[in-house]
Specification:
With 86 residues, the chain is of the alpha+beta class. The protein has one domain (5-82). The chain contains 4 helices and 4 strands, in the order αβααββαβ. A hairpin with a 4-residue loop joins strand 2 (46-49) and strand 3. Helix 2 runs antiparallel to helix 3 (35-44). The longest helix is centred in the middle third of the chain and has 10 residues, at 35-44. It is globular and about 35 Å long.
């Protein structure tokens, strides 16, 4: 599988507001998220791009919220979000 992350990072850098991703978190999401996402977490951490427009986030922070929106939230994992309007 090819990845668009290098192009994405070139267009939307620099990474800002970085937060380290524990190694056991990366391991825990292996098989649930694409390897490219896990590599991004390991290499660049959870962070924002494009002056805070796009964020790689900690999925655990969205577990409760996701179930409010979706009836089958158990099959979904949030790993990115965009800046809220306002």
């Amino acid at each position: 599988m090819s990845t668009q992350f290098p192009k994405f990072k070139k267009l939307h850098r620099p990474a800002a507001n970085t937060q380290p991703v524990p190694a056991d978190t990366v391991t825990g999401y292996r098989g649930l998220l694409p390897d490219e996402v896990l590599t991004q977490w390991r290499d660049t951490e959870w962070c924002s791009y494009g002056d805070g427009f796009l964020w790689f986030v900690n999925p655990a922070e969205y577990d409760g919220i996701l179930s409010d929106w979706l009836t089958d939230a158990a099959s979904c994992t949030v790993f990115m979000r965009r800046r809220s309007a306002g």
